[in-house]
Amino acid sequence: xxxxxxxxxxxxxxxxxxxxxxxxxxxxxxxxxxxxxxxxxxxxxxxxxxxxxxxxxxxxxxxxxxxxxxxxxxxxxxxxxxxxxxxxxxxxxxxxxxxxxxxxxxxxxxxxxxxxxxxxxxxxxxxxxxxxxxxxxxxxxxxxxxxxxxxxxxxxxxxxxxxxxxxxxxxxxxxxxxxxxxxxxxxxxxxxxxxxxxxxxxxxxxxxxxxxxxxxxxxxxxxxxxxxxxxxxxxxxxxxxxxxxxxxxxxxxxxxxxxxxxxxxxxxxxxxxxxxxxxxxxxxxxxxxxxxxxxxxxxxxxxxxxxxxxxxxxxxxxxxxxxxxxxxxxxxxxxxxxxxxxxxxxxxxxxxxxxxxxxxxxxxxxxxxxxxxxxxxxxxxxxxxxxxxxxxxxxxxxxxxxxxxxxxxxxxxxxxxxxxxxxxxxxxxxxxxxxxxxxxxxxxxxxxxxxxxxxxxxxxxxxxxxxxxxxxxxxxxxxxxxxxxxxxxxxxxxxxxxxxxxxxxxxxxxxxxxxxxxxxxxxxxxxxxxxxxxxxxxxxxxxxxxxxxxxxxxxxxxxxxxxxxxxxxxxxxxxxxxxxxxxxxxxxxxxxxxxxxxxxxxxx
Length: 604
What we know:
Layout: H1 2-6, E1 14-20, E2 25-33, E3 36-45, H2 50-63, E4 71-76, E5 80-86, H3 96-115, H4 120-126, H5 132-142, H6 152-158, H7 163-169, H8 175-186, E6 195-204, E7 212-220, H9 221-233, E8 237-243, E9 259-265, E10 268-275, E11 278-286, H10 292-303, E12 311-315, H11 320-330, E13 334-336, H12 348-357, H13 382-484, E14 489-495, H14 505-508, E15 521-532, H15 535-549, E16 555-565, E17 571-583
Parallel strand pairs: 1-4, 4-8, 9-12, 12-13
Antiparallel strand pairs: 1-2, 2-3, 5-7, 6-7, 9-10, 10-11, 14-15, 15-17, 16-17
Helix pairs in contact: 10-11, 13-15
Protein name: Tfp pilus assembly protein PilN
Transmembrane segments: 386-406
Coiled coil: 425-459
């Protein structure tokens, strides 16, 4: 049950507690309330057939408001409890299978001896259907012993007869009484050898180092299965079976580490001695014809307890006068052991077993037996591993969620910083774009101003330099032509073609006189047309023009002389040529050598 204290969700909130003496059945529904328990419903039946009796009490409980289902425990005299000494340290437990074998080895002979209590003869005497003398007489006949007043033939007649049939035939009991005991015996005794055991460690044995007391409970496996099936047919799961006597020790206060507990049931006695918080001795007492006072006195003296140890009494049915008489006989203070749930249908044993099953008991002072044997060690249980796995998954998920939340917070914080930075960047970009637009406008203004300045500079240069230079050139060419014209030559046209596109000299004249001139452009271009009377006059004119034009840095290009009509429709030769002035691509005028000085002067 320590498992329940470690994992609270495994503790049932309500528990059905049943108790049988083999001929009656009591049931109660107890509920855990904080660190205590309370009684909800209770019922009782005198039905001998326990299957029918269980159905009757559950029907009564449901009529009181119980919803049914859930878990249940059962106290039965078929479960035997004893204390054994084992060389097993509770702090270093053996493997489950090994511990199971040790417990079975110790419990099996004791259980076989205990089962003899549930013979038909014992049950008939215990129910008062026949006396001990009658039972002894029947047994004598079964064993072939001759009766007084009888003969050997009579002994042989009864030696092989069953006890109950012989008792009925002798007139000691009725057939109905025998059937009742046989039915009750089915729920108290089993013929199989397989047993189920449960155990709990107690204190160390004082005089044997390395040995410890172990409290062991045991029952036949088939009987446990029969009860489990009976509960299952009613929709209830039988969780554990407990011994009929001994479970009230779970009600002792946790501070009571040295004490004696006396427990009584009709015809039964059970005494327990505690030392160092654990059970060190226990005694069973069975005498159906002795009074509870005599049973308690004999049980107490059998323990050889120190006179100053406190004594507790748990009796059922409740008997207030028993505590007073026992206190007077023993000459010591007696502490009644009870609980608020204990009454005419709930015994101290039922309350103690429920206290233990609900996980309210501080120590293992009573032991139950479950179908399938004890649960493995806490770390080896499937439900614990599943719970640990679920817990681990929850921790992992929690850590992951926490990590994600932290990362999300960090990301959100970083996003806010980035958003603020982007906002600042956007504002800066807007300012930069505005400034760039202003700069572009300023550049456009500067460009327009430079264009206007260039235009004004060109215009000024045109008026200051080009026009005077052009006038000088035109005047010079006209003056040159005046000196070259004679009676055989007539000037017809002097024109200047469009100068918008400066052409390379090579393009204008493929047969340029100088290969260097092929990379130059024509800065000035004058077209001259004349008429000569003779071819010789025309050639002489061209030569004279070339010589005279050199003074003005002009070259004669594309001279042509063709025969044709001239002025007044007279025959002659037409002359056409171009006067060009060459310049470098950068605009520098090429000066021709002065025929007189042989010098080259730049002219822009």
